Amino acid sequence: MENEEDELNENSNQDKVDEEELEEDDNEDMDDIESDEEDLEDDFDIEEYARDLVAPGEVLTEDVNNFLPGRGTILNREKTKIISLNIGLKQVKKNYINVIPLKGFYTPRTGDKVIALVVDKNPVRYKCDINARELGMLKPKNTIKRSRIRLRGGHTDNSEASAEKYQIGDILIVKILYADRLNAPELTTVGKYLGRRKDGLVISIDPPKIPRVIGRNGSMIKNLKNLTGCNIFVTQNGRIWLKGEDIAHERLLIDAIKKIEKEAHTVGLTDRMLVYIQNEKNERGIK
Q: Considering the entire predicted model, what is its pTM?
């Protein structure tokens, strides 16, 4: 009998250890939010820019057989030219020609990951500022995360679940579940990298400038991370989460991002930023 009780206690303890290991794995996923740069590039669908700054009414192309009007563009009345509707950067993406405005609100799109601020709550939903014209709505059912419990024999039980509780002022990384022109965007905190952030800083820039912070093939964001030693997570609504080893490194990264925002329309920005950050590190005595 004693041997059987010892075996049961040993198995019970092992189950607890396995459960704790799974919880630690989940916490590590959130702590490493910025580390998977390939996922970040996939989420953003990195945009390729022509280096042209265009004005409203400007002809972007007369090759209407191979190109279609995209965001911020329109066909002329004769359907022989694609012209710009905005002041912004010309962008050629596959066979679409877009004009990305230099300033503007974030337009929610299903699947986007964004940084949200909880501004109001009631028993049926949280209202979140997502830097768009409409507040995003987060329902308690879209905060439920299932806890994994490893059972004897290597099986996993996903049956236990609980809704996260947030407070006004909380910073969340959320995903847009659904968005259209008639209804407020619906949000979720269930998924990889999603949930409340309790550390780091959040800054905002104009959403149209975000692709320049990412850079072609992720070049700019890799340089920012490597040269400042900071963790960084950029979202489509113009908000950026960052965390460095100290305030000096964080301030350097913030200043660099603001410079990118200011010079987003210029040529050779990536190379200039390499020089800028290195010079600033030398002047500020940052290693």
A: 0.71
